[in-house]
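Q: Got a minute? One more chain.
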Amino acid sequence: MKFSAIAFLFTATSVAAFSPASTASRTSALFSTAEVETKTNAPVFDEVCETTGVTLTRFMAEVAMLNPELSELTTLFGAIDTACKAITNLVKRSQLPSSETLGLEGEVNIQGEDQKKLDVITNDLLKRALRFSGKIGVLASEEEDEPVDIASGSEGKASELIVEETDKYVVVFDPLDGSSNVDAGIPTGTIIGIYDHDENCLVDGEESTDATESCLSNTLQPGTNLVAAAYCLYSSSTFFVLTLGNGVYGFTLDDQIGEFVLSHPNIKIPEDSSIISFNEANVERWDAPMKETLYKWREGTGASGKRYSSRYIGSMVGDVHRTLLYGGVFGYPGDTKNLKGKLRLLYEGAPMSFIMEQAGGLSTTGTKRVMEIVPEVVHQRVPIVMGSKNCVQEVIDAYAAAN
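A: Always. Here it is, folded:
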């Protein structure tokens, strides 16, 4: 059976791997300093979860012990952990001539983008990892036209939905963010969002019906419904950063022991900074409020009075990771060419906004809190500006003044 080896790998590793927790009320979004609660409850943490050097396995086990209702999430994160380790090895080896993983696959995804070979490989890898966790009700990926039925093993039939009566979670992901840079060895990453699955979504059979279409809407939830979000950054080190709704925790892969260890407990983004991370080649096509705010930052006439410097990788995971640690603003605003921006709400915007807000930052389209937008379609795009609270507030104020 072609999946037997992978099935053994993921089931064996994921069962022992983790114990994540549920999610939470999060720091307020955009327009005020008041807290905006989410529809899920924050998990309980203790001192073990704040101890640098603790492995991700131990961290999650502690969270599960303190929050027994989250035991199923443990297995799911075990699968994600294993998948990220497998992907980082693929990325590291991709530059070797023998790997044959660089270059284009020869197909175009639903967004009209040329798929890299690693896009397809990492997408399949994550699908299989999540399939063998046994905890997925619905799944959506950037590389799929619509959710596909991996639970039944018919992965080649893209028209079939993942619908399982007994599974608890909805998972959305971008398997290899920044893949256009992978041939040059630039940092890339994986983005994952996890929602609760509708317990009333009960479907018999594999054919697409009104009931299965209704279950597909499980993926169309606002970010305020997120149970957890995470990203894995493949760079000089491999980083796994997650939030369960009670702060943001960063782990670094120790290749010697094959484990992620806690290196950045309870990450808090600085409230002020002077770093901007945009594709400034598009600035002339931006909305006037965004354009004027950027000019003020460049000239040192913004609210802080500082001249901002520019740092831009072109990989969302890499740029957001740096922004979390150093402060600043990352964004991809809408413009006259891409009115709704280029970043996808469901598996890029919402999960990364959840992480940013849990670290004390803000995330906005300029006029709306990203976390509160309800997706209309799986691959919906939105303008996004996220980062240090005071910097992003300048953008919000500029749009408010313009209106």
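A: The CA atoms of residues 348 and 359 lie 17 Å apart.
Q: Perfect, thanks.
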